[in-house]
Amino acid sequence: MKCLVVGSGAREHVITGALLRDPEVESVVVAPGNAGIAELVKCVPLDVSDPVAIGDLATQLDVDLVVIGPEIPLMAGAANALADRGIACFGPTREAALIEGSKAFCKEVMAEAGIPTAMARVCTNAAQAQDALDTFGAPYVVKDDGLAAGKGVVVTADRGEALAHAETCFEVGGTVVIEEFLDGPEVSLFGISDGTTVVALQPAQDFKRVGDNDEGPNTGGMGAYSPLPWLDEGVVSEVTERVLQPMADAMKNRGTPFVGVLYAGLAMTTRGIRVIEFNARFGDPETQVVLSRLLTPLGQFLYSAATEQLADFAQLRWEQGFAVNVVIAAEGYPVKPVLGVPILGLEMLEADPDLSVFHAGTTMNEGKLVTFGGRVLSVTAHAPTLALARERAYEGVAEIEVSGSHFRRDIALSACSTEA
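Above: the chain's sequence. Below: its structure in token form.
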């Protein structure tokens, strides 16, 4: 099997590595990739927002499977373009990807499918926003209706801040979804869907805020761990039955079957499970701690989803133990990251089989590895216990030098106290 992976982040780095471990995968090409991925496979330039270019490249390479990593090419119609050429694609069509592309649309489908979620209102002007804020009360939750790379959500006790975020969206012609605050810890669960069948992966928890103790603005994600020692064993089955499968059924009934990753962001509230949001692709950094532990051959698994044969993969195999991922971010992230800063110390980690460094915002400049994005590296450690995996991940972070960089120091910390 020949594969093309579209994307350039740590998510695509871990997907590439997992595909290479599949004995049925003959070759992998990544577009555009990054400096770390380029050490594993061939990387080629690509505008990921151009579905025609993605289709042309897949045709030129004569691949059997295209795996779309980020949401932008999905919303641009990459899967549609590949379907027109008869090329198997792991990733939903533009119409199905709208569950991430529009939060208002997603709320509509969840209501139709009876999926438990927060009460919400769609607002198009300040008066509507003010009324919704007063209806739901603090903490206020205001979401940009469109794609925002994980940074379009404001959760605050300050009504003025909440209203200001809404007005910023209105000023550029956007809409917002204002909803009730959901209490309780959050869980990320990926469901792999072939349009009919959904197979859930192991759950993870990520850390969105830039600072320790969940302080500061939202980011694309500053770290994650999996599995979750505090989560009841029956939750994955319950979410599959009450959330993932109903969403897949609803999309199929609408005539837009969902093929790819149904990523459910969940809140384990005092009133039970509630869906915060759906995404239409693997999450980053959760992918680093989930797929790196998957023993089931990834290429065959994703190809079965892309070709409506997922029922053959009802039972997945997993590496025992835990994984913890810590993101090293560039100075200035998430507002204005500093680029071109040298990255040192990675060679010190190469000999450790239980430690992986997945590249995100990296590139080569005059033979030197430098920063090229906000989230630079994802340091991921595996160990028999969560506490040991956490310790090893931070030991790896300590070996890496990126001037001005920052990272959270509390990834998986509270969960270690719940570990049996």
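The longest helix spans residues 235-253.
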